[in-house]
Amino acid sequence: MYDFPDSRDWTRQMQAVESFLDAWYGTVMQDAGGAGMHVSPGEIPPPLVRFYELTTRKYGSVIHQNHLVLPRELQLDDDPVPFYIENQGVYLWAFERGSDNPRVLVRVNEVDEPWQSEEEQLAAFLLEVCLFEALIVAPFGASAACLSHAEIRPVLTHWHPIPYGPWQWPAYPTRFYMRGKALAMVSPNDQGFDFWCGAQQKEVLAFMKPYISQDWEVCKFIEE
């Protein structure tokens, strides 16, 4: 089981980020380079500074799907400051200035679009970023689009929602789940629900076999 500390304690949450990365990737890729990663003290909220340190010096890149804005690319005169961008550039996330653990805002990447608040502040949001990015590129997993309520309800009886708020993207409420060392994400759509699950070992997803059908888009853990 992964640790999800109280959202009021950002230092423990960043420790949980490191613990998750250790458990998922292992302590590898030491000194992964640092191009563009120099951080000037006081300019960037401490949780994001620590996240840059972890992804530069210890684990290498853990951002595979979306884009993490490098420190030298941050527009620190803006408020809020964009730091994480959806892989097609359609959505972006930003932190508010003036707090050690600020609110995270999200919007469609158009000038006149309004910002919306994510439910978690920066440190907890970064932990959710780790879950999302790990899940998307997990070596074993499965995904299905447009599952009905009747189809997804029995699946979710096997999963435990993490104790943090859902994301606004790709649609609200997008929730993260876990079961042992496996991760899952569920997002509503106009026709039902999108579902993704993933793990580093295929045996930890064995319980999902009865729910997989030929209609699922991806299945990377059941041998033909």
Salient structural properties:
4 helices; alpha+beta
Short description:
The chain has 224 residues and is of the alpha+beta class.
Count of β-strands = 11
Number of helices: 4
* Distance N to C terminus: 30 Å
H and E string: HHEEEEEHEHEEEEE
Main sheet characteristics: 6 strands, antiparallel
Shape, per Cα inertia axes: globular
Q: Structurally, how many domains make up the residues? A: 2
Provide the structure class. Answer: alpha+beta
Q: Assess the beta-strand content as a share of residues.
A: 25-35%
Q: What oligomeric arrangement do these chains adopt?
A: single chain
- Helix coverage percent: 10-25%
Look at the structure and give the mean pLDDT. Answer: 91
Strand order of the largest sheet: 7-8-9-10-6-11
Using only C-alpha atoms, the radius of gyration works out to: 18 Å
Runs with pLDDT <50, length 5+? none
Describe the structure.
This protein is α+β, with helices and mostly antiparallel strands and 224 residues long. 23% of the residues lie in helices and 25% in strands. The chain has a six-stranded antiparallel sheet, with helices on both faces. Strands 1-2-3-4-5 form a five-stranded antiparallel sheet. Strand 8 (175-179) and strand 9 form a beta hairpin. The model has no long low-confidence stretch (mean pLDDT 91).
Topology, please?
Blueprint: H1 10-25, H2 46-58, E1 67-68, E2 81-85, E3 91-95, E4 103-108, E5 116-121, H3 122-136, E6 140-147, H4 149-156, E7 160-161, E8 175-179, E9 182-189, E10 192-199, E11 218-219
Antiparallel strand pairs: 1-2, 2-3, 3-4, 4-5, 6-10, 6-11, 7-8, 8-9, 9-10
